[in-house]
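thread from #wetlab-drylab

HS: before we spend reagent money on co-crystallization trials with guanosine-5'-monophosphate, can we at least see a predicted complex? here's what I'd submit
DV: go for it
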Amino acid sequence: MSDCIFCKIINGEIPSAKVFENDDVLAFLDISQVTKGHTLVIPKIHKEDVFDLDTETAEKLFSVVPAISRALRSEFDLKGLNMINNNGSFAGQEVFHYHLHLVPRYDEKDGIQ
Ligand code: 5GP
Ligand code: ZN
């Protein structure tokens, strides 16, 4: 979709800090880091939200989530990881290209957010 920010990231019109990429999926750091390593995982085809997501695209996306999560754990020494997905403006979705937030969690006593 020509006016979609994430489609522009996929085709390179907008730069991003890539975490993972294959033929079907791209993962990149969120521009607004909720915690260090906050990553978005998106399908390379434009799907608006979970209601629009077909099974094949969902399978391709979720098949790489464990490997991306392990890579984040190695890179950032996180203690846990939240996965968040907003669907529809009523649920807080702001970018209408399906994306899964991977939000690393750290021990507060380490002073890392
Ligand atoms: P939503 O609220 O739709 O679930 O989350 C959209 C996310 O996209 C937000 O966390 C926001 O920071 C992120 N975002 C918006 N525009 C850009 C961008 O141009 N680059 C990157 N890397 N992240 C973006
Ligand atoms: Zn898109």
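DV: The first strand starts at residue 18 and ends at 21.
HS: ok that's useful, forwarding to the group
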